[in-house]
Amino acid sequence: MFTGIVTDIGEIIKLDKIPAGQRVRIATRYEPQGIELGASIACSGVCHTVIEKGSLAEDGRHYFDVESGKETLDLTNAGEWCVGKKLNLERSLGMGDELGGHLVLGHVDGLAEVVERQDHPDSVFFKLRAPGDYARFIAQKGSVALDGCSLTVNEVDGDDFTIFLIPHTLEQTTWGERQVGASINLEVDMMARYVARLADYKPSK
After folding, report:
1. What is the pLDDT of residue 194?
2. What number is the average pLDDT over the span 49-69?
3. Parallel/antiparallel/unpaired status of strands 123-129 and 110-120
């Protein structure tokens, strides 16, 4: 379980193809002694399991390794990862931690596309297009997780929705790099999913 509050920007420093999919090494500020093998870390919104960890002698940074299976590569933008790519990182929520964003599972529903970007002096406007099956879960002023960031939806129009990002968010996440055409990991609000399920439910006779 996560909150969608990014706590580090990691960088992919190694990527290997493996029979199950791919294995990546991510440089981070997280100290290895604070990460257990088998721990969950959201990497741009995709929950991954730590399988190796250590420190980099050359620059004082640390690292952890994760593997992505075929389904993850097919359903998320992990299939576009490459050496040098920056990732939004968040460690899993612990008991008693502050819930600063909203409850995020790290289970990406699909890929949204950036269809418009407008830079303003004090904010950046983005319009995104949701996959058709998931647009109905996105509500005006509701929460959505995009590349692992808990964000508030500004307006909704069919499959399109908009967000405004302040300079702090742009600086502390990878969103400053996002341009038109980018594929964004989308996880809809968990509560919206359950409400829709209850509305659709018809008991069998």
Report:
1. 74
2. 93
3. antiparallel
Write the DSSP symbol of residue 157.
Answer: E
Number of domains the chain contains: 2
Last residue of a domain, one of 60, 91, 122: 91
3-state secondary structure 114-177: EEEEEEECCEEEEEEECCCCCHHHCCCCCEEEECCEEEECCCEECCEEEEEECHHHHHHCHHHH
Q: Evaluate whether residue 124 is within a structural domain.
A: yes
C-alpha–C-alpha distance, residues 69 and 73, integer Å: 6
Q: Tell me the pLDDT tens digit for each residue of 12-57.
A: 999 999 999 999 999 999 999 999 999 999 999 999 999 999 999 7
Model confidence over 139-189: pLDDT tens digits?
999 999 999 999 999 999 999 999 999 999 999 999 999 999 999 999 998
Determine contact, residues 23/71, Cβ cutoff 8 Å: no
Asked whether residue 17 falls in the same domain as residue 66, the answer is yes
What is residue 168's DSSP assignment? H
| Predicted TM-score (pTM) of this structure | 0.91
